[in-house]
């Protein structure tokens, strides 16, 4: 747990580590208090989009190449995997 103090009333309380880098309301007076430290959301979004770029985007490129070359089986297979990767990305982003 992280210890924080209110700038208004000097009340000290504990907050969970997941709130690090964010802001919370003081339980005593209700003033919004900023917490020190870096938020973990940057890592979350970086890993999410990085994973999509490494695992999902190549299948989208392969689908376009398949369409341009007239290989519909390659286009459909790669496009299906790309669509699944996009759905997983959306569920991760909007489900968090």
Overview of the molecule:
With 96 residues, this protein is of the alpha+beta class. The protein has 2 domains: 2-34, no CATH class; 41-95. The protein is 54% helix and 15% strand. It has 3 helices and 4 strands, in the order ββββααα. The protein has helices at 41-55, 57-69, 72-95; strands at 2-5, 12-15, 23-25, 32-34. The strands form 2 sheets. A two-stranded antiparallel sheet has the order 1-2. Helix 1 runs antiparallel to helix 3 and helix 2 packs antiparallel against helix 3 (72-95). It is rod-shaped, with a radius of gyration of 22 Å. It starts with a strand and ends with a helix. The model has no long low-confidence stretch (mean pLDDT 89).
Write the layout of secondary structure elements.
Layout: E1 2-5, E2 12-15, E3 23-25, E4 32-34, H1 41-55, H2 57-69, H3 72-95
Antiparallel strand pairs: 1-2, 3-4
Helix pairs in contact: 1-3, 2-3
Short description:
This protein has helices spanning 41-55, 57-69, 72-95, and strands spanning 2-5, 12-15, 23-25, 32-34.
Gap from first CA to last CA: 22 Å
Identify the quaternary structure here: single chain
Radius of gyration over alpha carbons?
A: 22 Å
Report the count of strand segments. 4
Helix content: 40-55%
Shape assignment: rod-shaped
Calculate the mean pLDDT score and round it. Answer: 89
Biggest sheet architecture: 2 strands, antiparallel
Low-confidence stretches: none
Total helical segments:
3
Which series of helices and strands comes N to C? EEEEHHH
Strand content: 5-15%
Overall structural domain count:
2
Q: Which secondary-structure class do the elements indicate? A: alpha+beta
Strand order of the largest sheet: 1-2
């Amino acid at each position: 747990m992280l210890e924080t103090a209110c700038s208004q009333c000097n009340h000290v309380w504990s907050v969970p580590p997941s709130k690090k880098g964010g802001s919370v309301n003081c339980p005593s007076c209700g003033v919004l208090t900023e917490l020190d430290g870096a938020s973990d959301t940057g890592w979350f979004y970086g890993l999410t989009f990085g994973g999509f770029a490494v695992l999902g985007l190549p299948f989208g490129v392969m689908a376009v190449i398949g369409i341009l070359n007239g290989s519909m089986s390659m286009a459909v297979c790669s496009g299906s995997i790309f669509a699944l990767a996009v759905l997983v990305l959306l569920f991760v982003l909007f489900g968090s």
